[in-house]
Structure formats: C-alpha cells, structure tokens
C-alpha cells in the first residue's frame, strides 16, 4: 500500500533570484517575477501559507517586500546568514507545522541540498519550477474551505497575540481576561464538514474519546434527529482563531450523551474547554434532557477527563475501555466559571 503524502501547508521562499531576479543588498532594485506573484496569490487563496528563509539583512529584505506590497502574504520572515535548514526548522516550529507539510523553493542547488540533507521530510523545488506551482497536486488541497481562505489572517493574528502575551505584565489570568474572548457555538452545516473532519483527525490530546469521523459520517449525523453536531469558533481582540471545537451528542431517550468533544490544541492555553462543555450542558438541560458524556482514555487525552470532572461530571459507569459520566447538578453549579469567555449561540433558535 502506497502511503499518502500530506498536502503542503506552507511554502518557504528564498528571496534573491527566486521571488525576484536580482539581489537586494547589491542595489539591483529587483522586481518580483510574474510567476512568483501568481503562485503566491493562487496558493494563498487555497489556504497554503507562505514564509521566507533567505540570506541577507532582515530590514532591507522586509522593506523590499513591503515596497512591492507583498510583505503581508508571509506569516514568518527569517532572513540572516545561518543555514537555511535552521531557518526552515524555526519557521515550522513557529507555525506549529510538521516538516512533511513544508516546501522549500530556492534558486541555488547547494541551498536546496543543504535543506534536503538536514530536513529530509521537506520537499525542495528549484526556482525554475515556480510557474508550475499552481498545477502541482501537492500544492492543491482536496478542498478549500472558507476557513482555509482566511488561514493567513489567523496565523498573523496568532503571531501578534503571542508577542502581546510575551510583553504583558501581569498574571496569566489577567492576560486571558484582557483578550475579550468570544466563543460562538452553532449547529454544523455542510460548509463546516471539512474542518470538522480535520479537527477529529488532527486533535488527539484534546479529544474525549479519540474518535474520528469521515465527512460522510458527519453529514449523516448532522441530518439525524438523534444527534446534534456543534462547532465552536473563537475570537478575541486580535482577531479570529477560526473553528476550534467540535461536540457530537447522541439523544438516548431522556439523556443527551456527549460522544465526542474536542478542542484544537491551538487554544489549549486559553481555558475555553470548560466554556464549551457548559454550553453543551445548558443546551441539553434546556431541552429537558440529562447531560451525560462518554470518555475513552488514550495515551494523551487525560486532560479532557480532568476538564469534564472540573465541569461537574461524575463517573457513573466504567470498564477497561470506556467511562460514562453524568453531570452532577450540585457540582456543576459549584464548578469554576470560565468568566473570561463570552459564549454566544450562533443558531437561529436556541
């Protein structure tokens, strides 16, 4: 069986003689090539990120990108004199992306060889191939969602957010309160299925049961009268985080059983898991149903059991493979509030 190669999520670009013909520090006043501009635009609209790993001085390079109106297209700019492989590695860590989802393009075969040798999962391309980028399968995601089209804005907002957190003088609780976090929870629709599927596949640590759902299965659950599929998006004063949560509940008589609750690892430090659980509980109670939750332990998801317990859930049944928890009204009322998060219902009716 042939292993599937992941779609590229970020293209890391050299600048001199790659994005433009010429060298900025040699006063060439180079202009970005038409092929590079087209590739940057097409891939950006597909949700593929761009970054820079180039030799030279940062300020002149950034100023040149800015002068030609393309600096905003790049989520990370790493310009210096060290090995390109180290720059690519830093970019992958900054953007929280696996090296097997990174592509590197450079006109110099020696630079490409250095990156390829140091980082074998990274796919390397010569500058001569830039014109073909929009047609390459590995640069063509199987689906382009509305969230994908705003991915660059999400990452740039996250960079500003992290810089603000580093400069903030105060406790973590005070910083969270300063963010003005707003979570919007609503029933999933057709446009959410690709992102919901992606969350189940990618989010393991913050997944209560470790379950994954294919798009067809999610579509069936959304249409079922016996299930409720909710998606949660998050925003703060810096911008949006996109869709960061998924909750799938099954209606069993008078019970509403949470079969899956997961959060994106990107918001793990924002303390929003409890807010989403509280909203799910309140929806169940508003319909006269008793809130229950399943939990299936994995190697990495114990934090979600802790989150359920803090939200007021008690274990009422368990075996070696799963637990069933019920929301205890008394403990739930006494549970710590996620007061730093405002939760809104995005549904037309509650």
From TrEMBL:
PROSITE patterns: GNAT (PS51186)
Superkingdom, taxonomy of origin: Bacteria
Domain N-acetyltransferase: from-to ranges: 183-328
InterPro entries for the chain: Acyl_CoA_acyltransferase, FkbH_domain, GNAT_dom, HAD-like_sf, HAD_sf, HAD_SF_ppase_IIIC
UniProt-listed Gene3D superfamilies: 3.40.630.30, HAD superfamily/HAD-like
Cited NCBIfam families: FkbH, HAD-SF-IIIC
Name assigned to this protein: HAD-IIIC family phosphatase
């Amino acid at each position: 069986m042939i292993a599937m190669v992941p779609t590229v999520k970020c293209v890391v670009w050299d600048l001199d003689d790659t994005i433009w013909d010429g060298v900025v520090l040699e006063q060439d006043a180079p202009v970005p090539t038409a092929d590079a501009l087209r590739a940057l635009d097409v891939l950006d609209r597909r949700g593929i990120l761009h970054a820079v790993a180039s030799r030279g001085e940062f300020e002149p390079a950034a100023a040149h990108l800015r002068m030609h109106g393309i600096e905003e297209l790049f989520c990370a700019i790493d310009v210096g004199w060290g090995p390109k492989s180290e720059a690519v590695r830093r970019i992958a860590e900054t953007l929280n992306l696996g090296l097997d989802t990174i592509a590197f393009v450079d006109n110099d075969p020696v630079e490409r060889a250095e990156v390829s040798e140091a980082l074998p999962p990274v796919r390397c391309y010569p500058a001569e191939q830039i014109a073909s980028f929009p047609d390459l399968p590995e640069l063509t995601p199987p689906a382009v969602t509305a969230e994908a089209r705003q991915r660059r804005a999400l990452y740039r907002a996250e960079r500003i957010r992290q810089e603000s957190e580093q400069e903030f003088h105060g406790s973590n609780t005070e910083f969270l309160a300063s963010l003005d976090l707003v979570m919007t929870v609503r029933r999933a629709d057709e446009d959410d299925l690709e992102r919901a599927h992606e969350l189940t596949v990618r989010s393991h640590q913050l997944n209560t049961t470790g379950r994954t759902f294919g798009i067809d299965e999610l579509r069936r659950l959304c249409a079922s009268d016996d299930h409720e599929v909710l998606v949660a998006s998050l925003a703060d004063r810096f911008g949006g985080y996109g869709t960061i949560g998924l909750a799938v509940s099954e209606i069993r008589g008078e019970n509403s059983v949470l079969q899956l609750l997961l959060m994106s690892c990107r918001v793990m430090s924002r303390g929003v898991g409890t807010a989403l659980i509280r909203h799910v509980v309140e929806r169940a109670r508003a319909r006269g149903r008793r809130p229950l939750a399943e939990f299936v332990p994995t190697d990495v998801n114990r934090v979600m059991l802790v989150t359920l317990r803090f939200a007021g859930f008690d274990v009422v049944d368990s075996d070696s493979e799963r637990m069933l928890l019920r929301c205890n009204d008394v403990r739930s009322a006494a549970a710590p509030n996620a007061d730093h998060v405002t939760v809104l219902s995005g549904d037309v009716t509650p």
